[in-house]
Amino acid sequence: FFALAMNVKMYENPILKGNIEKLKKYGYKFIEADEGLLACNYVAKGRLKDEKEIVDEIERFFLYSEIENYSNLLSGKKVLVSSGRTREDIDPVRYVTNNSSGKMGYSLAQAAVDLGADVTLVSGPTELKEPSSLKKFIRVNSAEQMYQEINREFKDTDIFISCAAVADYKPKEYHNEKIKKAEGNLIIEFVRNKDILFEMGQVKEKQFLVGFAAETNDIKENALKKLRKKNLDMIVANSAFNMNSNENAIEIIKKDETSQEFSQKSKQELAYEILKVVANEINNKNKNNK
Known about the structure:
eight-stranded mixed sheet
């Protein structure tokens, strides 16, 4: 592994870039530099990545390098991931949201990059750092904003993984000024948001759709309903009580309703497991279509 740090002019030099590409062909790995204040007082790309992030990247390598043909598993695939929670504004200071941390979606986006895909991540509010080497990173707040961005990216996508915890409802009316406290109760009427995954399931052509079912009860039964109703190719069922955890236990249910269970693991480990199943399902689908 080389963790890069240098003056921006050297970093952008085509000779250096050519040498890096040559070394990559021999199996060497490169950890890209960050933008920041350099020793020469420029603010530009060339600053050594945070040491914790360097360690994280090396640790991830030992997870995914055990996967057969890992560097080409998703090579050439365009992957779209939604993650994080959405936020529905009530007035300038109040909003409704949920407990999703976004960790599973961010882990999936990073894993897809590691396995060779071009990855676009559409994210609602989180406290997480952007995964490295994404093709595109799009921040949104509301469910409507997320729908618009996903709808825009969807046509040019091979795999869509819907991992965001999207609000089912939003306030019917947005108040331009802060609602003042008054006597009695406050009643807010809510209306339905678009079901993004359902909408994509209606217009999908070649896309492979993966959904998530985070449930508090009857987990598999509810996941199967979503699989059928939303025209998905696969759904990942898990307990909603693991929303903020670094670990999870999941059951992957395929289009034919056969399933595979994975016991408690880190969300990053599970991300590779999920994508291995996705790649295998796509390969089988392509073979059957020939």
